[in-house]
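Technical annex, item 7. During the second reporting period the consortium partners agreed on a shared format for inverse folding records so that results from different sites could be compared directly. Each record opens with the tokenized structure and is followed by the designed sequence. A conforming record, contributed by the partner at site C, is shown below for reference.
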């Protein structure tokens, strides 16, 4: 996840013109190698390890009303984000998202670019807020990035993540209102347009 994967990296030039677009079926082959590496690192995601290309795909490639995007530079997939409603039905006005950046591309601004894209998408789709359910508290890069983009930590669930290096650590629930300019009495008058 942006500076967020927790995997070591060397300094690379910042991405100045990253293109973020809808992920296609063909993009999965470019996403899967860093998906598998990030999951195997055991520091940011609770997905099961050793998932095959086929097994991992439905966990990342969202179906409507969700959306999956890739950040690309030429033909190279630098990172990916998935987004959609946090819950179905009466919780569908709250968006959520997950992010992964290829560990070889961390530190170039890819995570920030995807975060900004996801927030813009959620606002334009009519979501009232965005909630991240499980940001590993030791993932300092992700926590810092999300706070810089306007998220706040609502709570931390203690010992909810079994970190490969640090053992049991907390998971932050992070939140950002996307409807700050609307009167409170309209909070539930409309559902997101997706």
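Designed sequence (site C submission):
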């Amino acid at each position: 996840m942006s500076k967020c994967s927790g995997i070591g990296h060397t300094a690379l030039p910042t991405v100045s013109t990253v293109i973020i677009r809808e992920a296609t079926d063909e993009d999965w082959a470019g996403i899967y190698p860093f998906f598998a590496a990030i999951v195997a690192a055991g520091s940011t995601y609770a997905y099961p390890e050793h998932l095959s290309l086929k097994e991992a795909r439905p966990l990342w490639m969202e179906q409507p009303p969700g959306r999956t995007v890739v950040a690309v530079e030429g033909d190279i997939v630098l990172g990916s984000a998935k987004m959609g409603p946090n819950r179905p039905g009466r919780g569908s006005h709250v968006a959520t998202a997950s992010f992964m950046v290829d560990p070889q591309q961390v530190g170039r601004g890819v995570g920030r670019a995807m975060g900004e894209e996801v927030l813009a998408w959620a606002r334009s789709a009519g979501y009232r807020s965005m909630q991240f359910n499980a940001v590993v508290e030791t993932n300092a890069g992700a926590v810092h990035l999300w706070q810089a983009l306007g998220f706040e930590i609502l709570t931390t669930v203690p010992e909810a993540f079994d970190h490969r290096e640090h053992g049991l650590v907390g998971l932050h629930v992070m939140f950002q209102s996307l409807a700050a300019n609307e009167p409170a009495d309209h909070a539930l008058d409309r559902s997101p347009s997706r």
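The domain at 2-127 is CATH 3.40.630.30 (Aminopeptidase). The chain is about 25% helix and 30% strand. All partners now use this format for quarterly exchanges.
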